[in-house]
Amino acid sequence: MVNEDPEYHDWGPGGNWETALAEELPAWIDDRYRTVAHRNGRAIVGLSAGGYGASIIGLHRPATYAAVQSWSGNFHPTDPSGTRTCSVGSPVDNDDADVEALVPHLRAQFRTHPTSLAFYVGSADPTFVPANRSLQRALTAARVDHLFRLYPGGQSQTLWQAHAGAWLRLTLEALERQ
Q: What is the per-residue pLDDT for 167?
């Protein structure tokens, strides 16, 4: 089955969501605002489904983003409920769309493009705790530098608001180290 929740992937003309978010939107912003228009000034952060998007886009484009964060996100494509894994095409495409499948290459990628990778989830999150713990284990086993936290709480605005200030500071500190 092909993913019926198409964001964060390139699906062809009129549906290239990853390219739109990772290249076209930053270029549009850079044209209109005073930005630091290179990777040392770029972070990508998302929550819930946007956490998956930030992770996959940021890791696919290491020359563009120096900091990548997922707040209560998943790490592979799912249906809109977040409970069922969806295919994005072939087995090769599915691996490319799965953050955990990228882990074996991240140590080398981070040597070339130092990246702050950080993610957290609430311990009572009804859907994404297993994926976050699994990614944590895979990154640790592969000796990939990252930050992971499991906080009390669920998939909620309360959790995100409680930690937004600290995690945004972590992002800015990571950019300052670049």
A: 97
| Residue 34, amino acid | R
What mean pLDDT do residues 42-46 have? 96
Residue 172 has pLDDT above 90, yes or no: yes
At residue 49, does pLDDT exceed 60?
yes
Distance CA 107, CA 132 (A): 19
Span 97-121, mean pLDDT? 97
Global pTM? 0.93
Tokens 């599915």 correspond to 94
155 touches 126 (CB < 8 A): yes
Q: Tokens 């290491």 appear where?
A: 62
Domains of the chain with CATH codes? 40-177 (3.40.50.1820)
* Residue 26 C-alpha from the chain's centroid: 16
Q: Read out DSSP for 63-93?
A: TT-SEEEEES--SS-B-TTSSSB-B-SSHHH
Token match 């976050």: residue?
132
Beta-bridge partner residues of 67: 43, 116
**Helix (H/G/I), strand (E/B), else coil: 58:** helix
